[in-house]
């Protein structure tokens, strides 16, 4: 597909050979789909789970990173002589350290920077790193490293960065590449046949991932072999990237990630800190830990980039869309990356004539990184407000307008049909459950407090790598061990996988031991990202369980002298059907005991040919606006999702509510604030000043409404992915509700009280 998401560039994934074919999807399920608490919940909440940050190896060193204090500067000199003499200091790395000459931030023509680049392009760029025996010694020594900078003029505003004469962030200027253009149909003809044409510019703020667990690595060398514990969304990708960075065989690198406290995309890529830990470990022959500070996670490990989106849309009187034209300006930060996505404009609705143009620009700020549906919430912010405005203009109900334009096929994939699409049902059943019609028709409150409702739809546009292997072992006592390489980034992946084992083998979920996310001991699995973790892994686990079951039934048939067709595995026992039917618990099956361990291997089938499996969504919001103070309270949200089969209703709802929370953040409070005038620095780099929604900022009244379609083509479990669609339309739904409540169209995130009272005051003056 397009460049929408850059999960991994230039690394060939390990292929699973001979995938299982033709495994039919389940019909009714006994375990899958139920609400089952996380299998590792106890250790996570009691603090006994060992996260990377909790690791403490014998002799382990701690690290402090020295970061550039200027938005744009050149490092003239690094003097480490005083720091080297400080107590406990073992090693220091900086740009002049020969082993640290490692290329970084890939562009089309290779690396665009270095691990320690003397040209610092944003405040927070890495300049040096000190390893010492205690964290305090490392921080003390870091303060004694003398760095001489030549501050340079900076630019942190993306429109200003485009101006001739703007400070050049890279030698070639501030444009990472040519604008990306997509076209289909005849755009001018499309607008010519429209009865209504609207055009509007929308802007979104930069949103920060800031996962609960900070980015952290522990590196340890044994001879030429490197082991890294890392909070990462993909141990196998990191293994390959580390091997490349150090020019070592992949087999000399092992990456382990036992527990993880979130990533949202900010832990998809190999981080500089991980390579620094490995370098310092090699210099000192000791294990080395690097944990980023909370501030660092705000400045240095990615963000959802700000976008300026201009959308022009045309529709006929009956609501038929005739044309979309969109220009997006986005910033990748100081280095190349993905700045935007126009995907939703291309594919969410049926529209024959579409042109999109996406331009990226560098600014002196931390680089973007894929963040939960990269580009999509920004695009939805524009498209879904435009759909609302079109409906108003045409005098149509906004739900009806969307329903009228639901496509049957993926238009950007030249008409490839979907394995299933629940978009219409998300819209209509969501509307019904929300009470859309009644609420949309209702008067909007009285006096200063106004109420309104809004709707917005979305979809996710990326099918991941279908390439995972699972090994399942069944023990004679009926318990099992599952071995699979994916990270459980906090979403409950392990629980869902255990439920798949339980579904097929009847093993209770708490009797499934799970080995995961360790390149040394587990099987290949793709990155945990792109809403694909369950999609990629559950089919492999199911195939492994079926392999075990088939071997087990063959053993039982021989031992019990019964035809295999008469046998079934149910809840830890072999059942013999027929008049002489009986039940043989697995513990009594001698042949299983003699086996000691029954092993099954499962490989994920490829994606279906000539079809595409993608999830769809519609969110409904109800808000209350205080027109005196400009405060917006989201009172109620309903999320209708078609993500195929619901695997675990509890973790499913967790995703939905978490995604809504993130979307309400984008709509109402979240924004990276850069001091454009004086310093270029991020001024709200902590959880106090950067306003993430808390429990008090999201409605208690949130409803998750799964639109569960039986998708027998997507894969053998029928799951289509949920982690990203949950946050795509939320902000736009809130904005549409604010419009309904106040009559004001707020085109800029976050919708903040100051902006709203100003607009209300302007309107009073005009009116
Ligand atoms: Mo996601 S942005 O693939 O973690």
Question: What this model shows, in words?
Answer:
With 767 residues, this protein is α+β, with helices and mostly antiparallel strands. It has 3 domains: 155 residues, Aldehyde oxidase/xanthine dehydrogenase, molybdopterin binding domain (Aldehyde Oxidoreductase, domain 4, 2-Layer Sandwich), CATH 3.30.365; 181 residues, Aldehyde oxidase/xanthine dehydrogenase, a/b hammerhead (Aldehyde Oxidoreductase, domain 3), CATH 3.90.1170; 242 residues, Aldehyde oxidase/xanthine dehydrogenase, molybdopterin binding domain (Aldehyde Oxidoreductase, domain 4, 2-Layer Sandwich). Helix content is 27%, strand content 25%. It has 19 helices and 30 strands. Strands 3-7-1-14-11-12-13 form a 7-stranded mixed β-sheet. A 5-stranded mixed β-sheet has the order 9-17-16-15-10. A 4-stranded mixed β-sheet has the order 20-28-29-30, sandwiched between helices. A hairpin with a 6-residue loop joins strand 25 and strand 26. Helix 10 packs across helix 11. The chain starts with 40 loop residues before the first helix and ends with a helix. The N terminus is likely disordered. The protein binds dioxothiomolybdenum(VI) ion. The site of dioxothiomolybdenum(VI) ion has 11 residues, from loops.
């Amino acid at each position: 597909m397009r460049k929408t998401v850059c999960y991994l560039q230039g690394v060939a994934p390990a292929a699973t050979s001979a995938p299982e074919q033709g495994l039919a999807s389940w019909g009714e399920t006994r375990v899958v789909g139920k609400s089952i608490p996380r299998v590792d919940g106890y250790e996570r909440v009691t603090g006994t789970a060992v996260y990377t940050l909790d690791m403490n190896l014998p002799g382990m060193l701690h690290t402090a990173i020295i970061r550039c204090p200027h938005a744009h500067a050149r490092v003239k000199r690094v003097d480490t002589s005083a720091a080297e003499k400080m107590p406990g200091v073992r090693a220091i790395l900086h740009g002049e350290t020969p082993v640290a000459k490692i290329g970084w931030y890939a562009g089309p023509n290779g690396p665009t920077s270095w691990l320690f680049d003397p040209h610092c392009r944003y405040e927070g760029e890495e300049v040096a790193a000190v390893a010492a025996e205690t964290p305090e010694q490392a921080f003390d020594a870091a303060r004694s490293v003398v760095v001489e900078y030549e501050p340079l003029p900076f630019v942190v505003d993306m429109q200003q960065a485009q101006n001739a004469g703007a400070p050049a962030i890279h030698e070639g200027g501030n444009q990472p590449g040519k604008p990306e253009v997509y076209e289909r149909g005849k755009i001018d003809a499309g607008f010519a046949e429209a009865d209504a044409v609207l055009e509007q510019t929308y802007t979104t703020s930069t949103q920060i991932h800031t996962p609960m667990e900070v980015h952290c690595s522990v590196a340890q060398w044994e001879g030429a072999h490197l082991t890294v514990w890392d909070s990462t969304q993909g141990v196998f990708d990191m293994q390959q990237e580390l091997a490349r960075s150090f020019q070592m065989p992949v087999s000399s690198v092992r990456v382990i990630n036992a527990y993880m406290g979130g990533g949202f995309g900010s832990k998809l890529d190999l981080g500089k800190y991980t390579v620094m830990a490995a370098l310092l470990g090699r210099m000192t022959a000791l294990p080395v830990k690097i944990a980023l500070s909370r501030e660092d996670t705000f400045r240095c490990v990615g963000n959802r980039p700000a976008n300026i989106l201009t959308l022009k849309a045309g529709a006929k009187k009956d609501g038929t869309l005739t044309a979309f034209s969109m220009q997006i300006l986005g910033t990748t930060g100081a280095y190349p990356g993905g700045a935007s996505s126009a995907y939703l404009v291309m594919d969410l609705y049926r529209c024959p004539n579409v042109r999109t143009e996406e331009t990226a620009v560098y600014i002196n700020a931390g680089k973007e990184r894929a963040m939960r549906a990269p580009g999509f919430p920004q695009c939805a912010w524009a498209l879904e407000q435009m759909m609302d405005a079109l409906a108003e203009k045409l005098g149509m109900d906004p739900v009806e307008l969307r329903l009228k334009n639901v496509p049957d096929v993926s238009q950007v994939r030249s008409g490839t049909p979907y394995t299933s699409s629940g978009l219409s049902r998300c819209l209509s059943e969501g509307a019904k459950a929300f009470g859309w019609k009644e609420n949309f028709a209702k008067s909007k409150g009285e006096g200063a407090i106004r109420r309104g409702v809004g709707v917005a739809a979305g979809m996710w546009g990326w099918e991941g790598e279908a390439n995972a292997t699972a090994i399942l072992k069944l023990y004679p006592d009926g318990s099992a061990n599952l071995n699979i390489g994916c990270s459980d980034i906090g979403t409950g992946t392990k629980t869902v996988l255990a439920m798949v084992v339980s579904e097929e083998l009847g093993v209770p979920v708490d009797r499934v031991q799970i080995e995961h996310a360790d390149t040394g001991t587990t099987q290949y699995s793709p990155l945990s990202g792109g809403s694909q973790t369950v999609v990629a892994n559950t089919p492999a686990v199911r195939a492994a369980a079926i392999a075990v079951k088939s071997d087990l039934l063959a053993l039982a048939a021989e031992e019990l002298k019964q035809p295999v067709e008469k046998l079934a595995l149910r809840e830890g026992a072999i059942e013999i059907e027929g008049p002489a039917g009986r039940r043989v618990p697995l513990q009594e099956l001698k042949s299983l005991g003699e086996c000691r361990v029954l092993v099954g291997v499962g490989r994920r089938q490829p994606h279906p040919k000539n079809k595409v499996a993608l999830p769809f969504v519609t969110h409904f919001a109800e808000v209350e606006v205080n027109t005196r103070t400009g405060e917006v309270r989201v009172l109620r949200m309903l999320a209708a999702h078609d993500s195929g089969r619901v695997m675990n209703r509890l973790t499913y709802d967790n995703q939905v509510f978490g995604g809504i929370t993130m979307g309400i953040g984008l709509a109402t409070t979240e924004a990276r604030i850069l001091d454009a005038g004086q310093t270029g620095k991020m001024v709200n780099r902590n959880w106090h000043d950067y306003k993430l929604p808390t429990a008090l900022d999201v409605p208690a009244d949130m409803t998750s409404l799964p639109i569960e379609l039986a998708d027998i083509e997507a894969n053998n479990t029928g799951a289509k992915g949920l982690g990203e669609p949950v946050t795509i339309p939320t902000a736009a739904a809130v904005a549409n509700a604010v419009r309904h409540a106040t009559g004001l169209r707020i085109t800029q995130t976050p919708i903040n009280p100051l902006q709203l009272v100003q607009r209300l005051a302007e309107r009073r003056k005009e009116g």
